[in-house]
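Each record in this resource describes a single protein on a pair of labelled lines. With that in mind, the following record should read easily:

===
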Amino acid sequence: MLKKKKNSGTAASRNMVVAEKPHATASEQFRTIRTNIMYAGVDDPIRSVLFTSATSGAGKSTVAANMAIAYAQAGIKTLLLDGDLRRPTTHYTFEVPNRKGLSAALIKDVPVEDEVMHTAFEGLDLITSGPIPPNPAELLASRSMERFMQSVIIQYEMVLIDSPPILSVTDAQLLCRHADGVILVTDVENNNRDELIEAKTLLDKSGANIIGVVLNNREVRPSGAEGYYYPEAVTDS
């Protein structure tokens, strides 16, 4: 059972179903995704996962945040890293300031500990994007970023990275180099096969280890019940 820390606030009500409705079907799907990620790395354990999408609006940030809570629920020391240095959202989700974070760490080359925020959930830490820099791609491609990721991997059992959409900017291609696995999130209501193929092609060219796809916002109508929406478990790519 996930325990909230005392005097630490709560996550914003932004589809944080794993925290708010742990017994819901959607929450079970997130736990299934967590299990599938574990099985995807039987020989080489996966300790860092990048979440991206072909275009904006697929719900990748919401999926990443719920997955972070799901890992914390399992007693795994988890870090959620907002790698979107252009349109960050994680600080809104967890209702925390964004005065420090990834960009500040890379520019100042400061220790990771100085940028970490402890969330309301036991076992889950957060590093927000930090102030939006004028050169996001250059920062993500820097040696400072490489050192930063080496440091967080040592300190956490699982690192989840929320990145920008891959067809919009090159950032996700740069970030995937630092992740053991990549999950592509798509909204089934606005799914575009050509865009998904193009996104996969770009990830392949970057050497990404695509471990699956999450079909977000899939409607299910159980017998005698109203429709509800949830992310379908990750599938092998």
In short: Residues 1-13, 223-230 have pLDDT under 50 and may be disordered. Residues 99 and 164 are 20 Å apart (CA to CA). The longest strand covers residues 210-220. Residues 25-40 form the longest helix (16 residues).
